Amino acid sequence: MKTIIEPFRIKSVEPIYFNTKEERQIILEKAFFNLFHIDAKDVLIDLLTDSGTSAMSSNQWAGIMQGDESYAGSPSFFRFEKTVQEITGMPLVIPTHQGRAAEKILFSILGGKGKYFVSNTLFDTTRANIEFTGAQGIDLLCAEGKLPTVPAPFKGNMDTEAFKKFIAEKGASNIPLCIITVTNNSGGGQPVSMQNIKTVSALCKENNIPLFIDACRFAENCWFIKQREKGYAGKTVKEIAHELFSYADGCTMSAKKDAFANIGGFLAMQDEALALQCRNLLIITEGFTTYGGLAGRDLEAIAIGLQEVLDENYLQYRIKSIEYLTKKLIDAGVPVMQPAGGHAVYLDAKEMLPHIPSEQYPAQSLAGALYVEGGIRSVEIGSLMFGKYNQNKNLIPAQMELVRLAIPRRVYTQSHIDYVAEVIIEVYKNRKQLKGLQIIEEAPVLRHFTAKLKPIG
Ligand code: F0G
Is 39 helix (H, G, I), strand (E, B) or coil? Predict the structure, then answer.
């Protein structure tokens, strides 16, 4: 088997600015040990997110020039609408400026006190938008999904038995929505199987609970289904996506991920009455129904990106490149989430830094060390992001303490990734020197974005 190469050539480049370890140490201190406070120019390899950071294709840039900026009924909207309809099979398509705007609209209509939104795992902004309405977000991830270093093919699956129990306990009428996140971002970018979606869909239908897909990374998930699930090897990713969406009543999507767009998102659904409510709210908060917070040119970029992501040469390269980094780390003994996910590599900080308890945010400490060692920016997905306080103000830690290195699409080359592996392995060798952190300032919701921390001792 020959090397799987990047299925593109580079036409336009951006410089990376180099700084020294000593300079980065000072930058991190000034940023209160929170990488969100660091200027992008001070980062060498930015793996903070794969969201909005993709390199667009020359076709997408050409589409940008063709964007029609009419307030109502722009042809760019109709091209966007048709593409979303073709992929999802959903007739009603509502553009939003990004994923969380779609969530905000949907949950404002369906949410409220005493309601439960059930999921395999909700992403942080998704959960926050649910909780903002007074409702609760409930994660029912399968058991294997909670064991970072134990491999299994579909660790993003929902625990359907737990879902049945939850319905019996709380009553279906208190569950306005079930959301399946594909791939499961907060749980390691792990895929959900078609069988699992089918079972969840049947349970939802029996109980009259609508099912939505959080579709940010649907193509990556469908590629895993093609590779790992019986009966799908001979199908195209487009056919698999079509089947996946056919089990759902709607979807929310951030086009900043699998659609390669720098901004954008949408809601798509089957139900006319719900769509009418969503569109009314859209007009107040985002914009008219045929642009929804986006420029016509963005709609073009999304429409083209949604077609490009279904290219299986691209998906093969994409998933292999994540596997490549994961394997290098495993070979060096670094504890990582296994198997490799779709868009990111996740380091298991709990396993790597047993001397730092959850209350001292081991994954945040590790993320800081990666920055100082090699200028790599990652993100903590652990108790800083998901921890809560009990009534005595003691931390209820997150289930896992992970550092996510999200790989922007079509941006970094293999030598960048080799460098990333070298930096992680260096930090791993010196892991015993890492110190825990304490929070000195935090916001009541989504605190990880703005929190200020300092080292303990
Ligand atoms: N759902 C999932 C699964 C996500 O990963 C994100 C964003 C959203 C919804 C919200 O979309 O950013 O367009 O408003 N995830 C980014 C990340 C921010 O870094 O993983 P958005």
Answer: coil
